[in-house]
Design a protein that fits this description.
Length: 429
Amino acid sequence: MIFCTTDFTVPYLNFAAEYYLATERDLHDDVFMLWRNEPSVIVGRFQNTYEEVNVDYCRSKGIHIARRMSGGGTVYHDLGCWEFTFICRDDNPEIEFARFMDPMAEMLSGLGIDVRVSGRNDICLVAKNPDGEKTYKISGNTQYKKNGVTVHHGTLLFDTDIGELVRSTTPKDYKIVSKAIRSVRERVTNIRSHLARDMTSEEFGEYIASHFSESIYRFDNDDLARIRELEPMFSDDRWVFGENPKFELKRLVSCPSGNAEIGLTVRRGTIVSAGISGDFFSAGSNGPDSAFGQRLAGVPFSPETVRAALAGFDNEITGISPEMIVEGIFMTDDQKLSDLRKEIDAIDSDIIGLLSKRMELSARIGKHKKEHGIPVSDPEREYAVIKKLENISGKELRPYVEEIYRSVIDASKKIQSETLPDDPEPVSD
């Protein structure tokens, strides 16, 4: 693997250098690029900048606003945050993170901290506090594919200004309070705060480099000149902000791999324009927005026609299918609530059927006890039943198991008492 670093601290130049290595400068080996930015907010390829960034605040503070080539969510960079990029030439069309996140987690573990790969694209630090373990995010990762090249990049929060992170990435129409900053601090942390031996951000960068510098490549003058030529691709407002159209209808589709916000303009029952944005991932080099808009423009606004127009759109967004998009567009909140209630109604029917069978068995137990002179009360049995059910229940249900089953057991006792009219004591099943 070839190690490459840049002296740039402006995000547009760093993204241009990354793009240059991925598309033009083939070094005939995998590349690991290490870089840092001045205070910057970086939005994902498919996000609406105005909805993700406090633009006025960033401009007043001189914070760069940039857009990267990959999907995922908005992040904040400063000189206390290191960025890394893996550039690999392969034929794998799928988005995969473990291949690149695992070596970074292993490298970080060498600092004596407990690091784990977590969720869809995070590296987390586990800290032992007096009240137990607590997990904090220290790295977010994303990637894109272009012409048979995988570009995977991520952040490493080493000594980042968390307060500035919150202020710059919160839209201006959202009131920022100290609670919001505290909330983010509870979810993320700086690596430096958990080291047994302190080091500067520069020393941390040298530590990273020592793990990935088998062979070093330094940009020459020709490389630097071409990178500067590519820089406007990433600094142009048309790229950073796009048109960000105001749609008449907005819908949100959520899944574990990300969120997609769908915007539609509908005139007289026909879709005039359509767009899709969000923190999702896409293996396509151009992203799904253009194809989405082309497919739906001029299509009658109905589930059947939209479903037909999106046929073959399956692989454009990781984890979000065309059918999920159709449901997200046409299913209102009331309909969603109604559907969920129908599911509950069906489950309730099953529960009543099973409870009826349980009560029939309780009656038979009562008869058996009377015939054989078995004591009717059995508190140990009740306790064992409840504990067993608590052990096999999920964490959401566990706190309520005893309350629910005390009622069930009480009902069983009444039925058994009716079966045994000569015994004044309620029995246990």
